[in-house]
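QUALITY CONTROL LOG
STEP: pairwise intake check
CHECKER ROLE: data steward
CRITERIA: each record must contain a sequence immediately followed by its structure tokens, with no blank fields

ENTRY 1 OF 2
RESULT FIELD BELOW
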Amino acid sequence: MRVLVTGGAGFIGSHVCAALRAAGHEVVALDCLHPAAHGRDRIPDGSFLLGDVRDADVTASAMRGMDAVVHHAAMVGMGVDLDDAPEYVSCNDLGTAVLLAAMARARVRRLVLASSMVVYGEGAYACDEHGPTRPEPRRTDDLRERMFEPRCPTCEGPLRPGLVDEDDRLDPRSVYAATKLAQEHLSAAWARETGSAAVALRYHNVYGPGMPRDTPYAGVAAIFRSSLERGEPAAVFEDGGQRRDFVHAADVARANVAALGHLASGARTGLRPYNVASGEPRTVGEMATALSAELGGPAPVVTHRFRAGDVRHIVASPRRAADELSFTASVPFAEGMKEFATAPLRS
């Protein structure tokens, strides 16, 4: 197929472009090289269009002759503060709306959307007394007292974290999370109105070669590695016990290839979400310790700092992707951290 990859010069997008080409697809990358994600990066190899998905003329031109779109163009991360909100909404939601309108006009009927675990908010929990529950946002006073675990909203007792699946309640708790959920809703509306098929890949914590370094929009793995390379310890927020699923960019790229194949094989119309996760959850503290060991750096420092909008535990079930896309992550945590410790990062 001829595939347009928006955000194709970015960290994940570049891995996806390479994997799609290796699978035999003709790939065109569209990217505006937004400064939040790109520094002094050179123009990538292969078919590349410099342009912004928010520009209707650019997007309409890029859509000519395409069989499918893989949409990664977005601002990512928690951002610095609410001053970032207009740019997040513009890049992520306006950009998606312009793209979908161009797809409708060009009658391109297949979409793979890069979504995120952040649409869930907190993960799945259960109370011993009240059963499965979803906690309210953690109280600032509790966080200041270093009480980081969510409480049962009924009895305020302790909760046991579990796995989220794709049918769990969606509860975005940051501007970025809200824009990612809006992307899913816009894509679902497009699919219904045009009789098209879309897959939303809800990425968990992606890491790997090519992550941007030294930017507040980077992932935690790159932030920790940059600290270690300066001879400084990784500064771990809260108590380091936050559970996450760290999934390698090579596996994420394979998930995109699998999703595109699923669409090509006659997937049903509408939008279908899938968790893209390793199935091997770790704590943030464990990840920091693993990177420190690989680089021979100082041990992590637990700061007990916290950020509004952060969630405590978010770990997903990868079963649906395995059952329906035949995708299972293949890079083990230890192997991935060993490679990432010395992998090239973006300026």
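ENTRY 2 OF 2
RESULT FIELD BELOW
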Amino acid sequence: MRMTPRVLYRRLAAQGLNFRELRESALQQLAEQHLRDGRLSLADVALLLGYSEQSAFTRAFKRWTGHTPTQWREEQVQAR
């Protein structure tokens, strides 16, 4: 993007945005997309999102949605 992190943070703030919130939102969307693919294990999803351990991904996902990835996946299957 050819700008320093500080410039990026300032420009986001001027738009009323926060880098961390944008990052978390993007990760949640990707996680949900990957969890819909039943061929991927939770460990695979965690690695695709850049988590070194499945447990860290599970904690983050629960913070985002209030459900574990397994619970969320089961609810999606039942909703179909």
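INTAKE CHECK: passed for both entries
DESCRIPTIVE NOTE, ENTRY 2: The first helix runs from residue 5 to 14.
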